[in-house]
Amino acid sequence: MEGAIKFARAATGRTGLLSLHGSFHGLTNGALSVMGDEHFREGFGPLLEHCARVKLGNLAALEEHLARRNVAALVIEPVQGKGVHFPADDFYREAQRLCREHGTLLICDEVQTGLGRTGRWWGFEHWGLEPDIITVAKSLSGGYVPCAAVVARRAIYQKTFSRLDRCVVHSSTFGATISPWPAGSRRSR
After folding, report:
1. Is 89 an annotated catalytic residue?
2. Average per-residue pLDDT in the chain?
3. Out of 7, 24, 91, 124, which one is annotated catalytic?
4. CATH classification at residue 134
5. In a domain, 159, yes or no
6. Catalytic pick from 7, 86, 109, 132?
7. What pLDDT digit, counting tens, does each position of 93-111 carry?
8. pTM exceeds 0.90
9. Burial class of residue 171, CB neighbours in 10 A (0-12, 13-18, 19+)
10. In this structure, is residue 184 part of a structural domain?
């Protein structure tokens, strides 16, 4: 989620983030900032600024926030993991349309729902969505190895890593691709 937030802000030049009440996006600083459950944010003081939440299904509130044109991304879980909530109508499709209309990116948090866990490869496919950024994790290794990925449109990636000197603006200790073959071995040639 941290990477998705950084990518959205870099691509749009905006700092605002919007999510849904009741959502769960992780326990790191940025993820807590878009967390829709107050219980998990309690006691950690100020998190990222310019984060707001709207109720699942409330298109009027969503449009009110997006009309300010300061929201980098709307973050949704296609199926909210805490309580298994999802819209019974076309809320997600309309939310995507409003995001496109107001220059806001759509991030689909597929950490729990991705890679076939809902009967479709991605949970967002149930609503015919085309998100700008996808986060995926738990299903990548079946829960045995901690790994995660951020999948983004090429234009978003290129705005984040816009120059050679910015090639490490988002990475981690275990995030680099390293050849498993020692230098000088036959396989490394």
Report:
1. no
2. 84
3. 24
4. 3.40.640.10
5. yes
6. 109
7. 999 999 999 999 999 998 8
8. no
9. exposed
10. no
